[in-house]
Task: inverse folding
């Protein structure tokens, strides 16, 4: 798709925005930005749904006009988006004249084409529930929803002949012309379509509902709110004669026509509708059949999202300690909330919202992995390289780990690399693939592997040490880590737009975010000024945390505090880590069952190590100059088991043997003093 038109549902302007609205709009914003990175032209719309019974009633209760009511409420949505760093191209309201005109033109055409018919029907009408019921629906002769009285009513209404489009709709879904993600939602719609599709009542008599768009062919009726609302997706890009009105209303923010002749031709049907699972039928059944009846293509893509649940009782109203999830953006900042929403929820599934989970995501992904990486790297640049990006020295090769980070960065951006093998071992995909499938949580996890790898480079190459003994070696490492940070920030921009800009500025990159096709390793200019800056993401702990590193929320919830600074240690600790980082290491006792020298390598021994219930591991240890295979076979060793697997001399090393390095340079295996069976955890 070279043009990507993204829409959110238009939200009812009858209440304040909540986390569900914020989630849907954040996902749409991030997906749109990813498509921009992939080189697509994008247009992103959101807005408010302003007609209908509920709005009319709320306004009456407040003693104001429905227009006054929606004017007020739409602003709370419109004004929210910039505070979450969301940048829609258009905000559409269904009460705007440009939209009313589209709805009336569409209704007029369908009526002329004989696809709308007046029919009278009768049934038990419940005034309290505003709907008809059949005899068998009633409970004790009363409305099954409200328990109130019902009256027998005969009413004429207009029906859209939706049933005629059942077959073409099934075909559009089955052939993938209408792509519904995740796939189980497509099956749900197909399941619904196994039953005969009925015609759709698309009018309401004005005597019952006046707050709606009048039918152009019968002024005693207004149109059903969904018929009105769904058409916003057409109005927004200039369909049904809205192009000129849009230009007048939106100026240069109107959807561009490009070389397509009209803005509608440019953007339709390259649409991707984002919506929650509760409004699937209206979007995937009513809407495409309306479009087909109008002679238009059905939407090309849908992304159906799950629900945020508040299973955590600490958030329940009855306990009186409700935390409004949306208010967490003020407490932790919009970037942290965006990250949590995008990273925590697998697109399409439900997830639990809790403040503790948000704090944890902040602390691990943002403060520890990303923030520390930038902080530690730029600190070395300030201290040892005159606050300038070190230029790469001639004739010095980067370490193998640096090379794997380069390959990973290139691979994520879609470049051809030698990264294939590492990828299949770790299930990492290029961004283009997971974005196409709209699995944004996977995209972000994959990008974070680059951040983690860069942290490993710092831990392995130790530039903070080598800078004192071999400055060129440190130059090579730091240059490449800065380049890796540039790649990571660029790739993370869709999720963390402000943070990405800040990081790029912090590493001396003045060009801003680039399309992935223009990303190429080694473009960061040596000598570029690296400005001073403060920490990007503070770590937080919730009041009531007892154990260090435990980010769990204590009963009753708690206020977030920036973690108070630990007292100055009495001993000098170089590169201190915290408890959580230590606990992330999975150290185990291993039994060495076999060992042999690795061909063509002076340093490496290949070990086969049993970790008990965790199974067997092949470990390549750089000890051949210090230990013989015989000294190791049959003995117990300590193994770091959760280090990323690495390929050495064409073989995978799936763990690291722990060794003490004596001041004389001898390597001594660390062995348990006592009988600890293989697999025992060391902590
Ligand atoms: N006005 C209609 C949409 C018309 S589109 C032509 C509407 N509005 S809404 O304000 O009720 O909801 C909009 C979206 O918010 C839906 O996609 C819905 O799934 C989503 N959410 C509402 N609560 C939610 C959660 N708790 N979690 C995630 N999203 C949920 O429906």
Result:
């Amino acid at each position: 798709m070279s043009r990507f038109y993204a829409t959110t549902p238009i939200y009812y302007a009858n209440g304040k925005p909540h986390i569900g609205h914020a989630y849907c709009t954040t996902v749409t914003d991030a997906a749109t930005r990813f498509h921009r990175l992939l080189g697509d032209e994008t247009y992103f719309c959101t807005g408010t749904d302003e007609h209908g019974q509920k709005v009319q009633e709320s306004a009456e209760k407040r003693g104001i006009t429905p227009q006054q009511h929606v004017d007020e409420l739409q602003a709370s949505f419109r004004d929210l988006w910039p505070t979450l760093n969301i940048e829609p191209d258009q905000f559409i309201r269904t009460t705007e004249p440009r939209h009313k005109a589209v709805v009336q033109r569409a209704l007029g055409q369908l009526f002329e084409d004989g696809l709308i018919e007046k029919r009278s029907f009768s049934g038990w009408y419940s005034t309290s529930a505003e709907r008809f019921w059949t005899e068998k629906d009633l409970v004790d002769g009363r409305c099954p929803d409200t328990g109130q009285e019902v009256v027998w009513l005969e009413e004429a209404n207009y029906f859209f002949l939706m049933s005629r489009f059942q077959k073409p709709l099934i075909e559009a879904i089955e052939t993938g012309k209408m792509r519904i993600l995740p796939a189980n939602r497509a099956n749900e719609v197909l399941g619904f379509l196994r039953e005969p599709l009925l015609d759709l009542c698309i009018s309401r008599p004005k005597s019952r509902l006046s707050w709606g768009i009048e039918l152009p062919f019968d002024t005693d009726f207004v149109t059903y709110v969904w018929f009105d609302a769904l058409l916003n997706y057409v109005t927004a890009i200039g369909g049904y004669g809205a192009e000129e009105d849009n230009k007048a209303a939106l100026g240069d923010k109107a959807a561009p026509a490009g070389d397509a002749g009209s803005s509608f031709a440019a953007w339709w049907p390259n649409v991707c509708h984002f919506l929650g699972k509760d409004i699937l039928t209206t979007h995937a059944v009513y809407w495409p059949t309306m479009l087909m009846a109008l002679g238009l293509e059905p939407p090309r893509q849908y992304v159906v999202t799950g629900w945020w649940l508040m299973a955590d009782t600490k958030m329940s109203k009855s306990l009186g300690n409700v935390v409004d999830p949306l208010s967490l953006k003020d407490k932790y900042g919009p970037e942290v909330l965006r990250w949590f929403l995008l990273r925590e929820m697998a697109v399409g599934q439900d997830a639990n919202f809790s403040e503790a989970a948000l704090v944890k995501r902040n602390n691990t992904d943002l403060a520890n992995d990303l923030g520390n990486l930038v902080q530690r790297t730029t600190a070395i640049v300030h201290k040892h390289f005159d606050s300038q990006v070190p230029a790469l020295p001639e004739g010095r090769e980067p370490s193998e780990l640096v090379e794997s980070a380069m390959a990973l960065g290139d691979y994520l951006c879609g470049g051809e690399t030698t990264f294939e093998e590492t990828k299949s071992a770790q299930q990492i995909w290029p961004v283009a693939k997971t974005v196409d499938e709209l699995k944004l949580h996977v995209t972000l996890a994959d990008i974070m592997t680059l951040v983690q790898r860069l942290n490993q480079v710092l831990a392995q190459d130790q530039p903070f040490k080598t800078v004192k003994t071999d400055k060129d070696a440190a130059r090579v490492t730091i240059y490449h880590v800065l380049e890796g940070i540039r790649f990571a920030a660029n790739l993370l921009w869709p999720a963390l737009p402000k943070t990405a800009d800040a990081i790029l500025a912090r590493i001396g990159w003045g060009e801003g975010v680039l399309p992935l096709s223009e990303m190429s390793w080694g473009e960061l200019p040596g000598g570029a000024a690296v400005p001073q800056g403060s920490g990007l993401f503070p770590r937080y702990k919730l009041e009531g945390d007892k154990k260090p590193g435990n980010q769990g929320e204590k009963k009753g919830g708690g206020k977030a505090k920036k973690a108070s600074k630990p007292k100055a240690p009495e001993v000098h600790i170089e590169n201190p880590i915290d408890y959580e980082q230590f606990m992330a290491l999975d150290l185990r006792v291993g039994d060495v069952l076999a060992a042999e020298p690795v061909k063509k390598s002076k340093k490496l021994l290949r070990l086969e190590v049993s970790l008990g219930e965790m199974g067997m591991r092949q470990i390549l240890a750089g000890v051949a100059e210090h230990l013989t295979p015989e000294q190791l076979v049959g003995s117990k060793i300590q193994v770091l088991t959760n280090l990323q697997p690495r390929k050495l001399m064409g073989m995978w090393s799936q763990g690291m043997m722990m060794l003490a390095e004596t001041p004389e340079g001898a390597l001594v295996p660390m062995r348990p003093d006592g009988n600890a069976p293989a697999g025992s955890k060391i902590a």
Q: What stands out?
A: The chain is about 40% helix and 20% strand. The radius of gyration is 31 Å.
